[in-house]
Amino acid sequence: MLLVEALREAAARLGGAGVDRPEVDARLIAGDLLGCPPLEVGLRGREECDASFLERYRALIERRATREPLHYILGAAPFGAGELKVGEGVFIPRPETEILADRAARLLADKKSPVAVDLCAGAGSLATYLAREVEGASVHAVEADPKAVPWLRRNAEPLGVECHEGDARDAGVLSELRGAVDVVVANPPYVPDGAEVAPEVRFDPDVAVYGGPTGVEFTARLLPVALGLLKPGGWFGVEHDDTTAEATRVLLKEAGFVEVGTLRDLAGRERFAVGRRPEEPGD
């Protein structure tokens, strides 16, 4: 069988299973097996596939046809200027989270010896982005799920990020940094319990997806922690569901944050709330 025929067969299988962009996924999986970029896969379409390749390729395509996320199959997910190793047991970073990461990096850019904390770090998307983009930053990442912590350490520690196993809602977490942090960011579980999700999302750990009956309960409990970690004037940013933008802004204001605002994703949806710790009472 020619490679182009194998690709066509794979795309048909994935399309029949309801996978978005089946041709793209078929090519990415083939490229991963062949050790070449996806563009090169197309250029090699007239090559004959050996039996070993076809066996392995079809097995991976079958995994994707079950709606197992592509990035679990590939073992990595792109984020910012790098990529994160991912697999079963850890939440797959989404590209829209880069909007929050970029805002945090900009807020840290003019700080001397900046300190940042990534709560609910998962695979380390926000923490690793800040470690790469902000020169001289001291970055800390907190994750509670013992299945996710090894992925966090694997991705973040080589970049100098200090990883901590702990609950972002625990008032004692990172107690040594209270009042010393310039920016705190979080991508907590925020999908309302029982909400409809894409088949791929069902492979993400439930503890990283569902945030309570309305989706904001987890966020509400980590806000006092974030506020306590920040220096006066420090900034906090949190990702949320697009249906809970107003509720999240209200929570930030009630927790004591000022200058509360919203960031939108590339589709124009309200997906992130930001706020500042007051410089002093009455600020």
TrEMBL record:
Catalytic activity: L-glutaminyl-[peptide chain release factor] + S-adenosyl-L-methionine = N(5)-methyl-L-glutaminyl-[peptide chain release factor] + S-adenosyl-L-homocysteine + H(+)
InterPro entries: DNA_methylase_N6_adenine_CS, HemK-like, N5-glutamine_MTase, PrmC_N, RF_methyltr_PrmC, SAM-dependent_MTases_sf, Small_mtfrase_dom
Record EC number: 2.1.1.297
GO MF entry, a single one: nucleic acid binding
GO biological process terms held by the UniProt record: methylation
Release factor glutamine methyltransferase N-terminal domain span: 5-75
Binding of substrate, residues: N187, P188, P189, Y190
Keywords of the record: Methyltransferase, S-adenosyl-L-methionine, Transferase
Family classification: Belongs to the protein N5-glutamine methyltransferase family. PrmC subfamily.
Function: Methylates the class 1 translation termination release factors RF1/PrfA and RF2/PrfB on the glutamine residue of the universally conserved GGQ motif.
Stated name of the protein: Release factor glutamine methyltransferase
Organism annotation: Corynebacterium otitidis ATCC 51513
Gene: prmC
